[in-house]
């Protein structure tokens, strides 16, 4: 308290000794400092938040729409009648043949726990479409996935010869020609 008292005494001796013009200038400078601090601490962050709110609101609306569509998909899948294991197996076989063609081989896993699909140079878009069909039509879900990016393009059927038009996109690294090798173990509905 002694330091505060001495500071107060020094202020009381110094302030009246100043000219009225100097006192006004010091008061104006102090008011400007207080006003600047009020701006930086209270108003600027609030105005920044207010100006960025519409963009954040739009982003949250997009996320909400995505979540709503996922919820609708989940409810549609839950409302479908349960498929038997044999129906699921047939549906999975059909989707493998339609989407992955000769690039995939399907084999029942041991003890009826699931199905293993071996992929060889499977196109990425066909693989994605097949996974969606397997989930919705056969009610099969991936349990294990071991995929590596294929170093070769899809092998053409033995009777077809590769044409320059089909080999050019693979050579240029076209992203639509990404292919995968590996295995996918799918769980089927219980018997």
Distance between the termini: 85 Å
State mean pLDDT (0 to 100 scale).
82
Count of helical segments?
5
- How does the overall form come out from the CA principal axes? rod-shaped
How many individual β-strands? 4
Structural class: alpha+beta
Main sheet record = 4 strands, antiparallel
How many discrete domains?
2
Describe the structure using short key phrases.
191 residues, alpha+beta, 2 domains, four-stranded antiparallel sheet, 5 helices, 4 strands, 17% strand
List the helices and strands and how they pair.
Blueprint: H1 2-14, H2 20-79, H3 85-100, E1 104-108, E2 114-123, H4 124-136, E3 141-149, H5 164-172, E4 179-187
Antiparallel strand pairs: 1-2, 2-4, 3-4
What does this structure look like?
- The chain is an alpha+beta fold.
- It has two domains: 5-61; 85-187.
- 58% of the residues lie in helices and 17% in strands.
- It has five helices and four strands, in the order H-H-H-E-E-H-E-H-E.
- The chain has a four-stranded antiparallel sheet with strand order 1-2-4-3, covered by helices on one side.
- Helix 3 (85-100) packs antiparallel against helix 4 (124-136).
- The radius of gyration is 35 Å and the shape is rod-shaped.
- The model is unreliable at 154-173 (pLDDT under 50).
């Amino acid at each position: 308290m002694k330091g505060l008292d001495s500071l107060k005494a020094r202020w009381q001796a110094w302030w009246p000794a100043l000219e009225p013009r100097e006192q006004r200038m010091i008061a104006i400078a102090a008011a400007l400092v207080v006003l600047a601090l009020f701006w930086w601490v209270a108003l600027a962050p609030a105005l920044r938040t207010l100006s960025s709110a519409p963009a954040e609101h739009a982003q949250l609306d997009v996320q909400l729409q995505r979540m709503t569509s996922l919820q609708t998909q989940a409810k549609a899948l839950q409302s479908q009648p349960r498929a038997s294991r044999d129906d699921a197996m047939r549906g999975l076989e059909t989707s493998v043949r339609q989407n992955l063609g000769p690039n995939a081989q399907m084999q029942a896993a041991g003890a009826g726990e699931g199905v293993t699909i071996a992929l060889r140079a499977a196109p990425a878009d066909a693989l994605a479409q097949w996974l969606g069909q397997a989930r919705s039509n056969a009610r099969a879900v991936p349990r294990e996935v071991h995929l590596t990016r294929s170093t070769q393009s899809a092998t053409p059927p033995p009777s077809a010869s590769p044409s320059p038009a089909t080999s050019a996109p693979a050579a240029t690294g076209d992203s639509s020609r990404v292919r995968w090798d590996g295995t996918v173990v799918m769980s089927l509905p219980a018997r």
